[in-house]
Amino acid sequence: MRMRRVGWAVDYLDEAQKLVRDPETHAGKWKELFESRKTEAPEAPDTEEALLEGVPGRLHVEFGTGKGGYSLDMARLYPEEYFVAVEKNDSAAGIAASKYDAEGPENLRLIWNDARFMDTWFAPEEVDMIHLNFSDPWPKNRNAKRRLSADSFLRQYAAILKPDGKLAMKTDNAALFEYSLLQFSRAGWPLQEISVDFRRSEHPEDAMTEYERKFTTEGKPIYRAVWRRK
Predict the structure, then answer these.
(1) Topology, domain 52-228
(2) Helices 151-160/174-186 angle, 10° precision
(3) How far apart are CA 101 and CA 202, in angstroms?
(4) Residue whose C-alpha is closest to residue 159's, from 27, 48, 35
(5) Which of 88, 95, 171, 175 yields a CA-CA distance of 20 to 30 A from 71?
(6) Which of 97, 126, 118 is nearest to 109 (CA)?
């Protein structure tokens, strides 16, 4: 369902501080951008999850961040890693931008644009981890090419991921999950992890999205898979 326009959020994009307006100029240099903005290490949340060990300098990209909660929580959880959230909807991007400016640490940035331009924003083999969370399933067959697990996107992911890079996907949509499993298999991506009820056990290493909390509360299963770059 298309998100209704949120006027204040769209207007906020003009002044957003953590919005990267020229992402193509940072291709191959994202880690330099984050390093240059570092002042002091942000304090990690005082929770058990904050004790999780991250990988310093690892670059994560979330395509279709929506209102931005997942990348925000992950950036807090792993303060030594870097997170770039991508969203094309102006209202959702504006809401995410306002959150990031108000609450986000310095290891988090936002791109407001369409994911199909990713190969202009990131250099070949620059990204360590890609996240796809509750992407639009585009259920009609004629719209299959718009799905973020369509073959055209898989080729772009493979180009920007490091040789040992990974892609993690979560969804509540069984049909989209089955489609994605088939697409990645056909493209030769090795499957590393799979779950048809990811939240049946606790996973403090992975933040929950807004949708995920809602669906989990309703007792709906969360489908998750992780693939390694072919």
Answers:
(1) Rossmann fold (3.40.50)
(2) 60
(3) 29
(4) 27
(5) 175
(6) 97
* 191, 196, 202, 206 alpha-carbon torsion, rounded to 10°: 50
User: pTM for this structure?
Assistant: 0.92
In the chain, where the domains are located? 52-228
To 10 degrees, what angle do helices 90-103 and 69-77 make?
A: 30
Digit-by-digit pLDDT tens for the chain (230 residues) are: 567 899 999 999 999 999 999 999 999 999 999 998 765 444 544 444 444 678 999 999 999 999 999 999 999 999 999 999 999 999 999 999 999 999 999 999 999 999 999 999 999 999 999 999 999 999 999 999 999 999 999 999 999 999 999 999 999 999 999 999 999 999 999 999 999 999 999 999 999 999 999 999 999 999 999 999 97
Q: Which residues contact 162 (CB under 8 A, 6 or more apart)?
A: 125, 126, 127, 128, 229
| Catalytically annotated residue among 90, 101, 119, 136 | 136
Q: Provide CB contacts within 8 A for 159, sequence distance 6+.
A: 119, 124, 125
Active site residue 136: yes
Q: Look-up: residue for tokens 């959702």?
A: 92
